[in-house]
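Notes from the 1:1 (GR / supervisor)

We went over the backlog. Supervisor wanted to see one worked example end to end before approving the batch request, so GR pasted a single chain during the call. The sequence is below; no edits were made to it. Supervisor asked that the structure be written out right there so they could see what the output format looks like.
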Amino acid sequence: MHKLVSFAGFCSLLLMFSCTGKSSGTATDAPSKTVCALQENVSIIAEPVSFAVADDGRFVLTDFKNVYLYSSDGRQLRQIGHSGRAQFEYLNPSCVKIHNDTIYVWSANSMEFITYTMDGEPVAEYQYGSAITDFVPDDDYIFIYTAGNRFENIVDIYDKSSQKTASSLTETSPEHKLLLHTWASVPMCIMDNHLYYAPKDRLEIISYDMNGNKLTTAAEIDSDSFHVEEISDYDSMARDRRKRSPYLRENSQTLALFQEDGKMFLLTIEGEGKMTDDAYDTSGLHFGLYSADRKRDKTADYSYDSIGTVALFSSNSDGLYFLKLSNDETQPHTLRKLIL
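Structure output shown during the call:
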């Protein structure tokens, strides 16, 4: 039996989020397969806030309190690390990744990355000093999708050896900054020695050559359903909830960038959401799937309920995964893979 915990900050941001654009009347249920049901043979978990799937099928998950490693069939293998203030302990772990059999944990309160072996042994700590939205680790660097006092650029390249930011990529727009107020996934992945990422406010995929330090635009996608209204003053919008909340309800944003069979795809959230009697109605929302290859067009519209999250995505070389959360304590959460 799982235990669901409501995180007020996350939920309040999530409830503010929707967008305008193409009608979701043509949306179909996202084709997906259930990889496994999440078991609780080691510990009962609270509501997951981040997870990452390794190429071998194992996955790591955090519930904002602790971190757990799972087998490919959903069994809890072990807890990774512990909550606390001592060395190699985390406080409010909000984001997790796996790279080369190393687990990376972002400790939100202490603003540092902590790494562990798959057996749970501590390896290293990397101080960053700012909030983040997400990150992707590599051998020598951690690519950080920025937030907080570092969000003047979309990506920071953090050098693990010097424990400093080596460079920053792509100046942010006011619209991008404001959309970061939503608790949602962000589009960023590594493929063929290139870092690919997209701003939150437009369908532009940017490529960073990790060998040649070259930055180029890999794709620009036209869409009649992805809409983001321009704003002139980020600060006033961010401070004023009466302005910020409607903006987040009425604008699209990018969510996930992933590869499958050597092709790249971009997932967005679009449609119309409504506040009804203090409850958020998601029936008008839908997901958009765009191809980033030569066609550079929309390939599908998926109904919101068939995926059910704008935050819980993970990708590896096999494609895109998402966590389907259960509100019934007698039913487990499930890990699913999107079928293209």
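Supervisor's comment: The first strand starts at residue 32 and ends at 37.
Batch request approved.
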